[in-house]
Amino acid sequence: MFRATAPVRRPHPVGPAALPRLVRAAVHTPPEPGEPYRPGDAREEFYAELGALYGASFDREQFAASGRRTSVELAYGALDALGPLSAEEAPEVVVVAYAAPDFEHTELVASCVKRRLPGEPLAFALSDQGGLAPFSALRVAVEYARRCGWSRLLLLVVDQGTQPFPLPAEPSPAAVRGDSAVALLLRWDGGERPLDGLAQGRPGAALFEAWPQDAALVAGAGLADCPDLPPHHGTSAEAVAGRPATGSWAALLTVDGGDRPVVVADYDRERDFLAYCTLHTGELRHR
Predict the structure, then answer these.
(1) Across the strands, what pairs with 229?
(2) What does pTM read for this prediction?
(3) Per-residue pLDDT reduced to its tens digit, 112-169
(4) DSSP code string of 197-218
(5) Do 166 and 214 have their domain in common?
(6) 191, 146 in Cβ contact below 8 A?
(7) Do 160 and 213 belong together in one domain?
């Protein structure tokens, strides 16, 4: 039986805050088209009824013209690219983040991913925050690690570009062009210490108090529309448009941070909301 309980807030121990360490990562962007459309009355009726609740019509022509690849397939591809994980390397908590929902409602990404990993990790998904969902997912994963005494975290980020309803068009930050998934295996060695170098909110001086000025910057596609950023050690990588959830994190894997921390940041101009996080990447291995 599964039981969810409210977070237990404990005083932070005395000592400096800590950063998560990114130790392994992979990007999966399949070049070939997905599965062709197979008509089905029951599924089409479901989409029509679901869309009617929100005033969105089922766009059968668009849906049939797109190659379908589910979020579960994409997440599996990212895990395969990450490589085998031993019991000592496997995550203790897995958080899946996405901006666009999966068109296949009979599968849950977190549950399917859990079956592919050693041990019994806690696994769940976080959404409804657009392209900033992965930043919240990382914070949630670290908070679980802090409370539970864990050290191994897996962040899975998915962009799935096939939808049965009208899609946002660029330059909207919600526009998804193609399919992609990123897997990030992290370690948390901070124990019960607070998480450093991370914040979310409306741009301003208070938001940037935790921003490390010596860090390299990985800029999300929306960051170009943001008001002035605090000083940083240059922009090391920029995300491509059309990947609202995965773009920043795929760009992160191109950075050689060395001994410097790396800040990943993105801005949602429609919500006027900015998120950033800071990671150690000196041990990063990526595929």
Answers:
(1) none
(2) 0.89
(3) 999 999 988 999 999 888 899 999 999 999 999 999 999 999 999 999 988 888 888 7
(4) S-EEESSSTTGGGG--TTSEEE
(5) no
(6) yes
(7) no
